[in-house]
Amino acid sequence: MTTFIWIAAVVVLIGIYLSWTAGRLDRLHARIDAARAALDAQLLRRASVAQEIGTSGVLDPAASIVLYQAAHAARQAPEDGREVAESELTQALRATLGEREQVDAVGAAPGGEQTLAELTAAVRRVPMARRFHNDAVRAARAVRRHRLVRYFRLAGHAPFPLAFEMDDEPPAVLGAPHTAA
Amino acid sequence: MRIGIVCPYAWDVPGGVQFHIRDLAEHLLSRGHHVSVLAPADDGTPLPPYVVSAGRAVPVPYNGSVARLNFGFLSAARVRRWLQHGAFDVIHIHEPASPSLGLLSCWAARGPIVATFHTSNPRSRAMIAAYPILQPALEKISARIAVSEYARRTLVEHLGGDAVVIPNGVDVDFFARAEPKAAWQSQAEGAGDEGGARPGATIGFIGRIDEPRKGLPVLMRALPAILAEVPDARLLVAGRGDEEEAVAALAPELRRHVEFLGMVSDEDKARLLRSVDLYVAPNTGGESFGIILVEAMSAGAAVLASDLDAFAQVLDQGEAGELFANEDADALAAAAVRLLRDPARLAELRERGSRHVRRFDWSTVGADILAVYETVTEGAEPGRSVAADEPAGRTAQDYGG
């Protein structure tokens, strides 16, 4: 009889642990979804502002085409080509807005100050959102690697979380806007 | 935005984290946000209107020193009540890994959570043992902030994951506008020693006198060599501690070159930093940021600091202030003498520091922190704010069944 009680107790404890872990995992997946939504929003904002600058005619024609093309590609990229397309937009931004004069030219156009402020915010927030996303991915992966989680399939049908890898180094002039005295 | 901030240390005890939270809260309030700070405080302590007491902090030995912490059912209940009443869009927890209010709120809350890691403690045994306990709480944090690249590196090594670096903020203009005090300044006119130092050149030090990590002993060892070269230099020391003990190792005839100012007010601190020819930060370790260097630069002081990782970063790897080999009194003396004899270089450091320090101003730092808040709330389900957490198991059943 005592053995039975012990076994029952252990089974109940394991059950509680599994249920708790499943709850944890569910939350982590929700956190990844939220982080991904935030990252998407920031990427889209960045591409929109870049496209605006590309079509505004403020920059020289060559720079305008490069920027417009990269922004367009980033917005249209299929899921599996997204990281590459966004990285290319980053590089295009660095190439076209790498120097103070070009940034000042954008700022001098009507409404340019506003556009620059939006772009500055976007290139600052994309790396932030990406770090938060990848941090959530890492936390979820750490839990999903547990043996119990795998044996009992606690993760359900949720796909294995993948980090979002891209080049998000902002143009030096925009990335450190606060160094300007 | 409705913002809840959790302070892990007693509100009535002065400390870097508390000051940071106070300034952050006031900055956010001035920008029109709703802010509530949950902090340990003795009942009866006068608190600013935006601070809610989480009860008295209990002094317990932790991590090699006596820390005043909050724990237990009573504190946990207060945290839950604060969360329920606040209906925050985001909560910002400071030091979530310390066994105090930070960890309690991390445990008790759900929804968008931002956390700032201030210290960069080497991995302690308690942390390793507590890892399985900490992890479920820490993995709720949607966004991590580290106060320096150095703090971020320790965080990544110890807990994995990643963080964005946002430095601590300073009200640069408060220091820049302070009025210099003649008694703490060197004389502008007249010849100094033959080396070119100004007569009565002043060196400043601010920090606890009896805390060896703040480095006053290193500076005291360097002082005889400095005075040998710049005989009328004066050292002005502001901070708490035993003054007799601090000068005990110094030859009696040199002691008159050291002036103790005791604890100084914020205003006097700013005036002191505005007045001195050279500010020396000889800290030997345990610094994850170095707010005092930022304050010194804000006041336009030329800075000479030990080459701790955190200091080197604040000083832009030696661009905005000079660095000397940590704990090396000879190197400190040599650098101080060279600088005091070179007013042009001092002026250059002042100018560079004042330009560099703008990135630490609250206007910049506050905007960055708000950007983090907006990033984490943006992804969250609309209308869903921070709430007290139910036990995870129940959520799991809701989810699974």
Automatic annotation (TrEMBL), chain A:
* Species annotation: Streptomyces benahoarensis
Task: List the InterPro entries.
Answer: LemA-like_dom_sf
State the UniProt keywords alphabetically. Membrane, Transmembrane, Transmembrane helix
Q: What is this protein called?
A: LemA family protein
Which positions, given as ranges, span the membrane? 6-23
Automatic annotation (TrEMBL), chain B:
Matching SUPFAM superfamilies, A to Z?
UDP-Glycosyltransferase/glycogen phosphorylase
An annotated GO BP? carbohydrate derivative biosynthetic process
Q: Indicate the segments annotated as coiled coil, or none if absent.
A: none
Recorded GO molecular functions are: hexosyltransferase activity
Region described as Disordered: 380-401
CDD domains xref list: GT4_PimA-like
Q: Which UniProt keywords apply?
A: Glycosyltransferase, Transferase
The Glycosyltransferase subfamily 4-like N-terminal domain covers 14-173
Q: Which InterPro entries match?
A: Glyco_trans_4-like_N (IPR028098), Glycosyltransferase_grp1 (IPR050194)
Spell out the protein name for this chain. Glycosyltransferase family 4 protein
Natural source organism: Streptomyces benahoarensis
